[in-house]
Each structure stands twice: as C-alpha cells, then as structure tokens.
Specification:
Blueprint lengths: L10 H13 L3 H8 L3 H4 L3 H18 L7 H20 L6 H24 L8 H13 L3 H14 L4 H13 L3 H14 L12 H12 L4 H14 L11 H20 L4 H21 L4 H14 L1 H8 L1
Helix pairs in contact: 1-2, 1-6, 2-4, 4-5, 5-6, 6-7, 7-8, 8-9, 9-10, 11-12, 12-14, 13-14, 14-15, 15-16
Length: 317
C-alpha cells in the first residue's frame, strides 16, 4: 500500500481515487486507498457515506458466490440495489457522486452478466427478457441510445408487454421525446398497470403524477391502477390514438366482462373501478377520433357518472 500522508493529501483527491477503484470493481483496494484518511477526517460526511456504502456492497459482492449462474448473480445485485437508496440516505442523504459511483458499479457488473448470456445464446436469437434487462442497465447508466436499442428489440419480440413499453417510455422521456413518452406510458398502464415498476421509472412527469396520487392518499397496488385514470384527469397522458379493429373488439369485450362482474357482484366494484374507468376513457377517445355519433359518447359518459360522480365531474370540468 502507498505510504500516504493525510496531512499533505487532499481528502477529495483520495475520495476521487477511491471512486475510480469502485468503478473498476476493486472494492478492497478502494478501502485501502481511503484508509489513511480515517484518523483525521473520520467526521467528514462524504467519507462516512462512502465507507457505509462500500461495506454494504462488499457484503453483497461476497454473497455472489451463493448463486450458480450469471443470470442469478445479476438478478441478486439488482434486487439489492432496490433497497440501497433508502439505506444510503439513513442518517442524511449520501452525496450524489457517492451513490452514483456505486450505481455504476452495480449496473456495469449486472450488464456484463446479462450481455454474456445474450452473446452465449446457442441459437443466436435474442431473448426479450434479457434484452429488457440489458436495456434497463444501460438506462440506469445514462446510455440512453443503447437502452432504446435493446428495449426496442425486446418490444419487437414480446409485443404488448407493459414492463418493456414502460421502460421504453421512460427512455423517451429521458431523451426529450415527450409525445412518444406520454403515448407509451399510457399504453403500458392500459395493458397492465401492475407490471409497471415505478421504482425504476425516472421520468419527472410520471414521478410527479405518482406523488400527486400519494397526496390523495392512494398508495401501493392501488396507485398503479389509478395512474392512467389520473394521468388523463390531470392532462398528463394526453396523447391519444385511434384503436385498430382488433384492439377495439378486445376493449369492448373487456368492458363487458367488467360490467358483468360488477353487476353480479357489486362488492367488487372498487376492485374494478380504476381499470373500467380507464377503458371508458379509451373508448370515448376512440369514438371521438373515428367521428362516432354523440349518442355513443354520451352513453359512455353516463356510465362513468353512474360509477363515480366525482370522477365524472373531474373528467368533464
């Protein structure tokens, strides 16, 4: 180890060197690099945050040996990342360059494992789930062009997958493609709200919408169900499109099934309310775009009013 005099060495320089070692996945050397600063700068907030985060990830990287495959190792690392921001902020928020360094460490490591799996495919065909994970890693690393490339490829293989479309929508938001982002988020929440991983969404637009729903007391699984409804009511998901004939048929069928379920079991109304109202919104938009009669639109509007007068008032004001 280098004989470093802390008195003559700027702590920032030491930390910068340690962050570079973290980026290179050399955690043991990173802690050796910073060791000389501990006696003099032990109360420095960034140094304390760095050491806390470093020990967290040392433990996780040591645990990788329990997992036999690269896929399982990568999945484990990303599962541990989910809890990391809350851990890092205990006792005060960690500096951005600290959390950023460990984010790079985790997602680069996971990315290498996923890419190795994609490259080792016997058939040469790409798996949509692996492409999705590669895209998510590139998005987390800020490499949005590569993220879009892989997510689009995943979307071509696995059509109408809400998680893939939501990740695409998030990337569109991050590169400034607002209309594409809004349209894609609306699609994802229509297909399956429960499949959208809000913890992984960075779009300021969607994060603000989620915060507004929390202010209204809507949380957990319910929050995901109500996101597309309030996305329309708050004019966030305001990019509409005409449905294709097959989509229109499926929409009418799903509405009929939900209406029947509520009619036969009224106690299930709350469970279906958000999804049914969202489908009514889609049906009204389709009618307007295809220049259907006012009577058909009014019929759907009446159904919304019967289900929830409050939502009807919000929708028509």
């Amino acid at each position: 180890m280098e004989n470093v005099s802390v008195q003559n060495t700027d702590l920032n320089t030491l930390l910068s060197s340690a962050y570079e070692l973290v980026a290179g996945q050399n955690l043991d050397e990173a802690i050796r690099k910073i060791q000389p600063a501990l006696g003099t700068h032990f109360e420095n907030p960034e140094l304390a945050a760095f050491l806390k985060c470093l020990r967290y990830w040392q433990d996780r990287f040591e645990s990788l040996g329990r997992y036999p495959s690269g896929y399982e190792k990568a999945e484990y690392l990303l599962s541990q990342w989910k809890g990391f921001p809350a851990f890092a902020s205990r006792g005060g928020a960690a500096p951005e360059r600290c959390t950023g360094a460990f984010k790079g460490l985790v997602f680069r490591k996971a990315l290498a494992m996923y890419e190795a799996l994609a490259d080792s495919s016997v058939t040469g065909l790409k798996d949509a789930d692996i492409l999705l994970r590669i895209g998510k890693c590139y998005k987390a690393l800020g490499e949005y062009d590569k993220a879009l490339q892989h997510l689009d490829a995943a979307n071509q293989i696995k059509k109408e997958n809400a998680e893939i479309i939501a990740e695409l929508a998030d990337c569109y938001a991050l590169v400034g493609e607002v209309r594409l982002s809004k349209a894609s988020f609306r699609e994802a929440f229509f297909i399956n709200p429960a499949a959208v991983d809000l913890d992984n969404i960075e779009s300021a637009m969607v994060c603000r919408l989620a915060d507004k729903l929390r202010e209204l007391g809507i949380r957990g699984a319910e929050l995901l169900e109500w996101m597309p409804v309030y996305g329309v009511l708050f004019n966030v998901f305001n990019i509409k499109r005409e449905l294709r004939p097959l989509e229109y048929g499926k929409l009418r069928q799903s509405i009929y099934m939900m209406e029947t379920e509520i009619r036969e079991s009224p106690q299930k109304k709350n469970a279906f309310l958000a999804r049914l109202v969202n489908r009514y919104f889609w049906l009204i938009d389709h009618y307007r775009m295809t220049k259907e009669s006012r009577e058909k639109i009014d019929e759907v509007m009446l159904k919304i009013r019967e289900l929830s007068p409050a939502l009807y008032e919000e929708y028509t004001k």
